Amino acid sequence: MNINETHISLLSQAFKDDPMFVYFIADKNDKEQTKKLIRFIVKQNRLLDGLILTDHTTKPSYVAIVDRPRNLRNVSIMAKVRLNIEMLLLIFKLPFPVLRFLTKYQKLSFSSAPNEPHYYVTMIGVDPYCQGKGIGKKVLGEIHEIAKSSQPPYPVALDTENQKNVSFYERLGYELKDTKMIDGLRIYCMTRPAE
């Protein structure tokens, strides 16, 4: 499904109290800074042939951004060039400390992820008015089904900065593989084995 500004706004609202976004968005009232980062994540996902799951074009209740199992050697040269251009443009859109943090975070994600190909849940955002109704669990179930029905079946990895999410993910079959610190922010790295 195509993602638009309604989806970007939903993700921005869903992550406004997320520890990582709170940590690196200096001006908590600057919603545009969060949206710039989310737009970049969406562009990166598209260029790398990722998945975007949502239930509606104009009134979504959720948006999930998922990276497919991939090998960067299989990504077209044009996609790599476009991704590098987007990364360069990000330098002019976000403060340097945010970019430094994101670089550290990306290195940490890769170092704690499964060694074999896997799906990676980049973001799942549920509309704040729809939270607590089982939508997040339903969306994760859909992602798990995609990973299970792949040939071969793949594990699913994700990271969370919110400790209360760890037990939620564990109930859904994830295992806490590693806990890392970046500039004082704790990151919980989790994996759900292939079925």
Descriptive account of the structure:
The protein has 195 residues and is an alpha+beta fold. The protein has seven helices and six strands; from the N terminus they run H-H-H-E-E-H-H-E-H-E-H-E-E. It has one domain: Gcn5-related N-acetyltransferase (GNAT) (Aminopeptidase). The protein has a six-stranded mixed beta sheet with strand order 1-2-3-4-6-5, with helices on both faces. Strand 5 (175-182) and strand 6 (185-192) form a beta hairpin. Helix 1 crosses helix 3 and helix 3 (31-47) packs antiparallel against helix 4 (77-91). The longest helix has 17 residues, at 31-47. The two termini are 26 Å apart.
Characteristics:
alpha+beta, 195 residues, Aminopeptidase
Summarize the structure in short.
The protein is an alpha+beta fold. The protein is built from 7 helices and 6 strands.
Fourth-tier CATH superfamily name: Gcn5-related N-acetyltransferase (GNAT)
Unreliable parts: none
Per the principal axes of the C-alpha atoms, what is the gross shape?
A: globular
Kindly, what is the distance between the CA atoms of the first and last residues, rounded to a whole number of angstroms?
26 Å
Architecture per CATH nomenclature, i.e. the level-2 architecture: 3-Layer(aba) Sandwich
**Sheet with most strands:** 6 strands, mixed
Give the strand order, joined by hyphens, for the main sheet.
1-2-3-4-6-5
Mean pLDDT: 87
The level-1 CATH class: Alpha Beta
As for the CATH topology, it is Aminopeptidase
Listing every helix as H and every strand as E from the N terminus to the C terminus, the arrangement reads HHHEEHHEHEHEE
So how many helices?
7
Keywords: Transferase
Organism: Saliterribacillus persicus
Pfam family, one: Acetyltransf_7
Protein name: Acetyltransferase (GNAT) family protein
